[in-house]
Specification:
This protein has helices at 3-25, 29-32, 38-45, 49-66, 70-77, 79-97, 108-136, 141-170, 172-177, 179-191, 196-203, 223-252, 257-283, 289-308, 313-337, 342-374, 378-398. The chain is an all-alpha fold and 410 residues long. Pfam families: MFS_1.
């Protein structure tokens, strides 16, 4: 690389960082704003706990359905244009979701349809951001993943925290729609970054794993890919159950809706600290097994506390929130670290998120149905403990320093 080329690359890398963080800022608020408002939505629409569970599950299921095909969109349009398109679709889907009003069934179809559309748009960002980080910051993947995860979690926390006060002021419909403004801002900034990095995609995949020969080699034949997928899916299931139902668990124990919304925000906000602490720690370690298992133990302790000592619910929320933010970081990081190239990272990201989110999407549904059947949140927390134990096992295997084309060797 010549000096002039290096100089030209400097500003583009700085701009890339800013724009990646803006994309990350959009990957959760449209989803996290729903949890604190779910009882208000149910009261206005007459939806049952199972129907509200479907509302919480739809974005996750949408992520699962669309994530596997994102690499095809990226191959056709390129990563930059794919993300720009996704930001526009995200804004449109978020606005569409806010249109329903009145009792069932009138208008509620837009609530569900808009949720599916915004979930599809978020899938594009979810899959491509790890590939962008792998491509442009190959020597700092854990650190950069920590930065964008902290941004993602922080914006998600703000959306949860302001949801109830905003709904009291402008109504829950406009509160849901407000998340579209951030997508519009991100799209405008992203559109100004040009395409110098897009050309790098042609140059970088010179590794044999990105040549035409391995294209017929399916990731589904790699044990490592399945370990990563299992870990991603199980941690996502825990996250989305808590995201959808933690405010209801809190109000079940006598906490007000507004306070429950803020505690959900705190649950996510403490994940910022987790991301900023765990990211550099992972940067210095050869594998992630100890971190993944330790975080599962911490998460299990928080959930067990909610079930058996609910008097200390705020303490357990913060403990579980720290573990949740850190496990999200670990799951995104191992997607990049278990791949050798950006192209491979995009394929692995699509598999892990496609299958993983379909698994995770069942979580809010099962939780809602279980509450309808038992009238209590305690059985849900017991089931969560089992899921967390499985997550720890998957994390041990996904955290090994191996690659998807290694045949699963240790």
């Amino acid at each position: 690389m010549t000096a002039s080329q290096d100089d030209a690359r400097g500003p583009s890398r700085a701009l890339l960082l800013v724009t990646v963080l803006l994309v990350a800022a959009n990957l959760r608020p449209a989803i996290t704003v729903v949890g604190p408002l779910i009882e208000r939505i149910g009261a206005d629409t007459g939806m049952s706990a199972s129907a509200l569970g479907l509302l919480g599950a739809l974005p996750v299921l949408s992520l699962g359905v669309f994530s596997p095909v994102v690499h095809r969109l990226s191959s056709r349009l390129g990563m930059e244009r794919s993300i720009l398109l996704a930001l526009g679709v995200l804004a449109a889907g978020t606005v569409l979701r806010s249109l329903p009003g009145g009792p069932l069934p009138a208008g509620v179809w837009t609530l569900y349809l808009g949720t599916v559309i915004l979930g599809a748009a978020i899938a594009v960002g979810n899959v491509l951001v790890p590939a962008v980080v792998k491509r442009d910051f190959p020597d700092h993947v854990p650190l950069m993943t920590g930065l964008y995860t902290a941004t993602l979690v922080g914006c998600a926390a703000v959306a949860s925290g302001v949801a109830v006060p905003a709904a009291a002021w402008i109504g829950w419909e406009l509160t849901l729609a407000s998340a579209s403004a951030l997508a519009v801002v991100a799209a405008v900034v992203w559109s100004r970054r040009g395409r110098p990095q897009e050309q790098a995609v042609v140059v970088l995949p010179t590794d044999v794993s990105d040549s035409p020969r391995p294209r017929g080699r399916r990731l589904t034949r790699s044990p490592v890919a399945w370990h990563v997928t299992a870990y991603f899916g199980l941690q996502s299931a825990v996250f989305y159950i808590m995201l959808t139902w933690l405010p209801s668990i809190q109000t079940y124990h006598g906490i007000s809706q507004a306070a429950a919304g803020w505690w959900l925000a705190a649950y996510q906000a403490v994940g910022i600290i987790a991301s900023l602490l765990v990211g550099p720690l992972m940067q210095r370690r050869r594998d992630q097994r100890g971190i993944a298992v330790g975080l599962a133990v911490l998460m299990g302790s928080g959930v067990a506390g909610m079930a058996f000592v609910p008097q200390l619910l705020p303490v357990w929320c913060l403990m579980a929130g720290f573990a949740s933010g850190a496990t999200l970081l670990v799951s995104l990081t191992v997607v990049s670290l278990r791949a050798r190239t950006p192209h491979q990272a995009a394929r692995l990201s699509g598999m892990a998120q496609g299958i993983g989110y379909l698994l995770a999407g069942s979580g809010p549904l099962i939780a809602g149905a279980l509450v309808d059947a038992t009238g209590s949140w305690v059985p849900v927390l017991h089931v969560l403990l089992g899921v967390i134990a499985a997550q720890g096992v998957a994390g041990w295997f996904a955290g090994r320093r191996v690659f998807v084309d290694d045949g699963g060797g240790a």
